[in-house]
Specification:
The chain is an alpha+beta fold. It has helices at 27-32, 38-45, 65-71, 77-93, 100-109, 115-121, 126-138, 153-162; strands at 10-20, 53-63, 142-144, 149-151. The strands form two sheets. It has a two-stranded antiparallel ribbon. A two-stranded antiparallel sheet has the order 3-4. β3 and β4 form a beta hairpin.
Length: 180
């Protein structure tokens, strides 16, 4: 899938969805999609009888509000209390117990580390871990990087104000002779 760099950091709305015959894709449509020819599009789509083809209409509806939120580190006492309350509610509703502070702490301690490693460190399933990071991202506390995550300026200020929870580091590694 090709994504335009101009779309990054924006909210996109799906305006239409229709099944199409890939043979009817025009050169103009191929170029609008970032391809040189209709055949290039069909090749990328892996067209066959088992994979229907859809034309999806999209439009940019504005900047992603989470970007401004995550940059806002001028937190009042009320802001800190509201974030703390929201995290407490997220923890209380969780099927796997409290997780919000542990996830923030591991991301703060290990930015740019792949989600698989972070999830394993916390003894979590990768998919559930990523869903939880997305919840923190909606509060402006974390941001996704090309590889891994980082605590946002807002998240860092929150952790500074409330005190980052102590999290154990990764388990020590042993050399082949059994020494740590």
């Amino acid at each position: 899938m090709r994504c335009s760099p101009a779309i990054s950091g924006h909210v996109i709305e799906v305006t239409s969805l229709e099944a199409i015959d890939p043979a009817g894709i025009t050169t103009t449509e191929a170029r609008r999609a970032g391809y040189d020819t209709p055949e290039d599009v069909r090749t990328a789509l892996c067209v066959n009888v088992h994979n229907p083809t859809y034309r999806i209409g999209l439009r940019c509806i504005g900047e992603d509000p989470r970007i401004a939120l995550r940059a806002d580190d001028d937190l009042s006492d009320d802001d800190v209390a509201a974030i703390r309350s929201r995290l407490d509610r997220m923890d209380a509703r969780s099927k796997h117990g409290t997780w919000t502070r542990a996830v923030l702490a591991v991301i703060a301690r290990r930015p740019r580390v792949v989600s698989t490693a972070l999830a394993a460190e916390l003894g979590r399933d990768r998919a559930a871990f990523k869903a939880d990071v997305t919840r923190l991202k909606s509060l402006g506390l974390t941001e996704s990087l090309e590889v891994g995550y980082a605590v946002s300026p807002r998240g860092a200020e929150f952790l500074r104000r409330v005190g980052a929870p102590e999290q154990p580091g990764p388990p020590p590694t042993r050399d082949p002779n059994g020494r740590q």
